[in-house]
Fold:
Amino acid sequence: MKQLNPMQQNRSHRLTGGAILLFSLALSGGVPVPSTHAAALEELATPLADPLLARPPVLERGKLLPGERAPLTCSVSSGLPRQALSLADAIDLALCRHPQVQAAWAAIKLQAAQLGEARAAYLPAINAGIGQVHSKSSPTLESGRLSRTQYATLSWRLLDAGARGANHRAADALLEAAGASHDAALQKAMANVISLYFDAQSSLASRQARAQSEALARTVLATAVKREQRGVGSRPETLQARTFVARAELEHARASGLYQKALVALQAAMGIAADDVPQGLTLAPPDDDDPSELEQDLQDWLQQVRQQHPAILAAQAQLEASLEKVRATRAEGLPTVDLNAGRALNGRPDQPGAGRGARDTTVGISLNIPLFDGFSRTYKVRGAQAQVELREAELREIQTQVLGEVASAHVEAGAALRNLATSRRLLEAAQSSVDAISRKYDSGIADIVEMLNAQAALSEAGQERIRAQSEWRSARLRLLANAGRMSRSVAAADARP
Structure:
């Protein structure tokens, strides 16, 4: 063996110590690692993106919503369109920008990684290393011995009592739950933005109705002034008309403020920052056709909810994962069989200096039998069983809540659907009354009180029409969301007042 002189030994010690110091500082963040080095380390640590095929196809293809032919494609610079904002545009922005949707998407990736870990438990673990030891012996420290060891080990669990299988099934169930939770986040985000979009449309319709009332009040005021000038009317009638104009202006201003507030809430739901509110944002005009009837009865809606609602599916998958965790916890306390193999050159890693050229090869099978762990396993199983009971209670709570909301929304939708036709007839009758009394008032047959009462009835009928439309939209939205049928195309098709 080659001997090192004291100068070479000191130089070797300094180089080794400096390398260890730099490596420690790099690991602790004290020395900045170049980005190229970080990328190289990343490639070295994870040479393959998904070697065990744990990533679900939805991460590659994207989520396909009910009724859609292709998944939504989000761009980094997606913003408000220049033309009138349609409901489909608002949904696109919400699905691309909503933080809860992005967090649910990241949760799928997290559960996919955990599924990969569960699958990796079936494969062997192989390690290799190289060691170098410089030793000196007393009483003469001038000479020393340098030894290098090389080794490789393999460990492989051959048999267990089902712990790996239970963990793998639990990871599968949790991945399914993450996908269902992502669907629920999509449904919630769409329901929120659609509700706020409808609120903005209702506020816009209310502002337009108030503007029409103000215009009609000004027309009545102009007629009252002319009547007073001709000697047909009186001063009190003109004052009453001015009072009605002032009230109409106030209601118009309030309606305009509510509309601007609704637009701000809609922009927040779409992920648009409050300091980036564009000027002149307009909404697409709604369709004013009344639907003829509900597409399905209540029992059909409830059946769809039990089978399709993502929140229920997620709760069921989480319950299944908890059941598998109980099986895995029990199996971890049972015997296992492992295969161990190793080969070392110039001594084992923990026994250097065995002699130059020495080779050591070991192969063995070990049976591990847990005998006593201080009753730790007992309480772990009890905790896993309690987790199952908790998941069962959560599932029942979600089912009861969702089914109750569907039943309530179906009743409200039926009532709102009947109110739509009634509100239309009321608005048409009030408009006809105003037209008839206006002609009489212009001719001097009707007085100002009759004219103002007819105008107030028309304004109230317009508000009732807007209220009926909003109630129908809200009830219809709840039905779609609770049944798991919400999508861009379905929402746009059902966005009728």
